[in-house]
Amino acid sequence: MSKVYVLLIQNYDALDGYMTSSDVEVFTDKATCDEWMEQEETTRQALKGFKLVAHAEDPGYWEFVKEDGNGTYTHDFFGQYRDVIGGGDDAC
Question: Of 15, 20, 53, 80, which residue is 20 to 30 A from 91 by alpha carbon distance?
């Protein structure tokens, strides 16, 4: 069975800490995800005022934060390998 690297993205509001949105990115492997995080997502987050504050402790977790007058906005990224179910000629 083949696997893909899935990145769950959760965004939290500064005022009440509730999750305001979530998203999923899918990659062929973790190296491709790491490259995307370093070359694209970190730059995109920085343009919005977010700074990378956590990653070294857990290579499958990234956290970006932005402080403003309302509090701390947080974007969390959780990555893990997942099995691919179906696909190809045997897909339902």
Answer: 80
Give per-residue burial for 64-77: e unless 16+ CB within 10 Å, then b: bbbeeeeeebbbbb
pTM: 0.80
| Torsion sign over Cα 75, 28, 1, 24 | positive
Task: Look at residues 66, 79, 81 and name the one whose alpha carbon lies nearest to residue 34.
Answer: 79
Segment 35-44, tens digit of pLDDT? 999 999 999 9
Q: For 24-75, what is the HEC assignment?
A: EEEECCHHHHHHHHHHHHHHHHHHCCCEEEECCCCCCEEEEEEEECCEEEEE
- Of the candidates 59, 10, 52, the one whose C-alpha atom is nearest the C-alpha of residue 30 is 59
3-state secondary structure of 41: helix
> Is-contact 12 20, C-beta < 8 A?
yes
